[in-house]
Design brief:
Helix content: 10-25%
CATH topology of the largest domain: Rossmann fold
CATH superfamily of the largest domain: Vaccinia Virus protein VP39
CATH class of the largest domain: Alpha Beta
Oligomer: single chain
Structural class: alpha/beta
Number of strands: 20
Radius of gyration: 21 Å
CATH architecture of the largest domain: 3-Layer(aba) Sandwich
Distance between the termini: 39 Å
Largest sheet: 8 strands, mixed
């Protein structure tokens, strides 16, 4: 069942555990406005504020109840009961940290971050949203984690919500050149139509009904080579003569194709400036090992995967912050075999458009990407929620300004806001 449509109305969402806003990008492309983004790391909320200047970005500890602070940040929400005024967001979205159940985590059942899934659901219940979208790692569906899902279902049932049976979705099935798999929990209030999981639009093989999933070659199409610019040893941007991409995916990332399914706001940005592209210095021995690694293979010492231009990227991983060990993400080797990919090239592998800028610290930028949902995957799920909610948004004509570039400078520490 789908609710009656409300032509042109855009949905409104709050993203918890937002990171830089990968899922927010996808939901905006599906026709939602991002009213508020919340994360506990200042580097993430600063980047979110830069990208979604029309909304609010809050640095909050989501172990605590932050519903009041979030409500006050909603449009016209200062010290007002937004529920009474009908300004409740259509949905809460986000991916609570998953290290306690991740296949590469410590799998500690007592890890306090496990409770962040409960926090996500409780915030949605307290704010009375019609829909919740939670992203998690595929191991959530393994038998040992069944009690976590059972507890969530019980909490939701008592509050008048239901969960559609969780499902693992593959990014490559939705036009992302990366073998990333994630579980999504679709939750709806019982007086709202249940959303359905999106059907694949892309595939690796020859299928008359599906588009061909873009390759790594398609992903890098039209990007200037960072190796051509000495300025990129010391900073993450350089002015260039733009290169015209020839693949549809390259044109899509550069904003040069009419994408009828993209309902996001336009941004005022410069195609003649290559960003997120600081170069990485490698020892000669490392370069030698990279070059000796076959495309599609793994370099044994660093465990880095060398990208195959005619293949797909493996999952981009995040590493960890100082609080959890400062592990550096294992960044893939470029197809050339002489260096790792830049953050901009990683953005292309993740379906992040070229207008998006991340932290100017390449380590932080890699982390931001690895912790995020590829926007094209988020768009597909967001479109399913919009359909269930009866929304029929149109592509907006407004051009949204980007925030102050100082927001992208590296952030080491900053005080977190307490609950209001």
């Amino acid at each position: 069942m789908t609710a009656p449509s409300t032509p042109t109305r855009r949905g409104r969402v709050v993203e918890l555990f937002s990171g830089f806003g990968g899922l927010s990008l996808g939901l905006e492309q599906a026709g939602f406005d991002i009213d508020v983004g919340v994360d506990n790391e200042p580097v993430n909320t600063a980047t979110h504020e830069y990208l979604f200047s029309y909304g609010k970005s809050l640095t909050l500890d989501l172990m605590e109840n932050q519903s009041k602070a979030i409500r006050n940040a909603l449009p016209a929400g200062e010290d007002i009961d937004t529920l009474a005024l009908g300004r409740t967001p259509d949905a809460i979205i986000g991916g609570p940290p998953c290290q306690s159940i991740s296949a590469i985590g410590k799998k500690d059942p007592n890890d306090p971050r496990t409770k962040l899934m409960d926090s996500f659901v409780q915030h949605g219940i307290e704010m009375g949203v019609g829909y919740m979208l939670m992203e998690q790692v595929p191991t959530l569906l393994q038998q040992q984690n069944a009690p976590i899902l059972d507890d969530l279902r019980e909490t939701l049932f008592r509050a008048g919500y239901s969960m559609v049976e969780p499902r693992t979705l593959r990014a490559i099935d939705f036009g992302v050149p990366q073998r990333r798999e994630r579980v999504f929990l679709l939750i709806h209030r019982n007086d709202r139509a249940a959303p359905e999981y999106p059907q694949p639009t892309h595939g690796e093989g020859e299928d008359l009904w599906l588009h061909k999933t873009p390759t790594v070659r398609d992903a890098f199409d039209g990007l200037a080579d960072a190796d051509d610019f000495d300025e990129l040893w010391d900073r993450d941007w350089v002015d260039i003569d733009p290169i015209a991409p020839t693949s549809r995916y390259g044109m899509q990332m550069a904003g040069l194709v009419n994408d009828a399914d993209d309902l996001s706001y336009k941004r005022d940005w410069r195609r003649d400036r290559l960003t997120c592209s600081q170069r990485t210095r490698h020892e000669p021995a490392s370069v030698e090992r990279f070059a000796a690694t076959a495309p599609g293979g793994n370099e044994p010492t660093s465990r880095r995967h060398r990208l195959d231009p005619d293949g797909l990227s493996l999952t981009l991983r995040a590493g960890s912050n100082a609080e959890h060990g400062s592990f550096t993400a294992v960044v893939p080797i470029h197809t050339k075999g002489t260096r790792v990919v830049t953050a901009r090239e990683a953005c292309r592998l993740h379906s992040v458009p070229d207008w998006v800028r991340l932290s100017t610290s390449k380590i932080q930028a890699y982390r931001q990407l690895g912790n995020s949902v590829p926007p094209l995957l988020g768009r597909a799920i967001g479109s399913s929620i919009a359909k269930a909610a009866g929304l029929a948004p149109a592509a907006p004509s407004e051009v949204v300004p980007l925030g102050d570039e100082s927001l992208l400078q590296p952030i080491r520490s900053a005080p977190k806001r307490k609950a209001a």
